[in-house]
Design brief:
six-stranded mixed β-sheet
């Protein structure tokens, strides 16, 4: 259950709908075909999640309990079908096999588990040792990865625009972080609360990548999905937390993310622009983390985690609500020092008021 109301899992993808919409309109069928099929599949999965939420899921076989503080991972292979979870490809503790995609998914689940355990004392995404389930080789030429409320799913990409979605560890971390939000603040997936939902996943995805690479805030590239784009794309990633709006300007279109409230995008698409306006809180976190320096999960990350899990963040929170709580959390954890100043200044620079 969540700390702030009804338990309502949502269907969340790493590739924004506006990117797939652009590709679906391309004259080249090698670009438009996979994009259209991906949009159709996403629409189906989104509808299934909504129906499951309304009528309830069929009872599932219980998963083996994991020892406290240790991961329990199972990676499945959909074998280019769409039935989930698929055939078991690797269980917890088994040696790596020949399938690099399976091995990357397994390692990414482990990296996410480790970051939350070591940095935040959180035992899996629900805080109670929840087994981590993933499916790889989902569908054919599927250009996305998603969290469906129960598990991770990865496409192989079409090789034209997107590569294997297990390649960037921050993609894995991003989607699993949706699960953390689901089990804590359960932020509504619409408008500013939805943009916060997406931003929180980008923040923790970035932290998992930095933790895995042993990077400080100053050493990190602050890109989400770097290494995912195929040769036909000249962009550098799906999003940039350092410079929102600069991740791509090519066959994918122009990165629409704003970095401040001056350029906030009002739209009815993408659940009110959840993948677009997330650039604003993303940039605030980048500013706070780089101002403080060192490892981002040690100070800025602790503040964001405290807000997400503290029980005071409402499901329909707006940017101002979240920003205000981060200021309060910084003061509560670190006192009146540089952490408080860095967090407050970061929100000021992106144009979000704190109360």
């Amino acid at each position: 259950m969540t700390t702030t109301g009804g338990f309502e899992p949502v269907f969340c993808t790493i590739v924004p709908p506006h990117v797939l919409d652009r590709l679906a309109q391309a004259e080249d069928p090698a670009l438009s075909g996979p994009a259209r099929r991906t949009l159709q599949r996403d629409a189906y999965e989104r509808t299934q999640r909504r129906l499951t939420t309304v009528v309830g899921a069929a009872p599932a076989a219980p998963l083996p309990a994991a020892e406290s503080g240790t991961p329990h991972r199972t990676v499945h292979d959909a074998r280019h079908g769409t039935k989930l979870p698929g055939a078991v490809a690797r269980r917890e503790g088994e040696e790596p096999g020949k399938d690099a995609t399976v091995n990357r998914a397994y390692a990414g689940l482990g990296a996410t588990f480790e970051l939350f355990l070591r940095a935040f004392s959180r035992d899996s995404i629900d805080g109670a040792g929840l087994p981590l389930v993933a499916t790889v080789h989902y569908d054919r030429d599927y250009n996305n990865a998603f969290w469906n409320g129960d598990q991770m799913v990865f496409g192989d990409g079409d090789g034209e625009i997107f590569l294997d979605f297990t390649l960037p560890v921050d993609v894995i971390g991003h989607e699993l972080a949706h699960g953390v939000t689901q089990y804590t603040a359960n932020l509504d997936y619409f408008g500013q609360s939805g943009a916060l939902n997406e931003s929180v996943s980008d923040v923790f995805g970035a932290l998992i990548k930095q933790y895995t690479l042993g990077q400080t805030a100053g050493e990190a590239d602050w890109l989400i999905g770097a290494g995912l784009l195929a040769p036909r794309v000249t962009g550098k990633a799906l999003r940039s937390m350092k410079e929102p709006g600069t991740a791509y300007d090519d066959v994918l279109g122009k990165d629409p993310q704003p970095s401040t409230m001056d350029d906030y995008v009002r739209t009815g698409r993408d659940n009110g622009g959840v993948h677009i306006n997330s650039g604003i809180p993303n940039h605030a976190f980048y500013l706070a983390a780089t101002t403080l320096g060192g490892h981002s999960w040690e100070r800025a990350g602790q503040v964001w985690y405290d807000v997400l899990t503290g029980g005071e963040l409402s499901q329909d929170a707006q940017f101002t609500d979240f920003a205000t709580l981060t200021v309060q959390a910084a003061r509560a954890r670190f006192g009146e020092g540089e952490e408080l100043r860095a967090v407050s200044k970061a929100w000021e620079r992106v144009g979000v008021r704190t109360l």
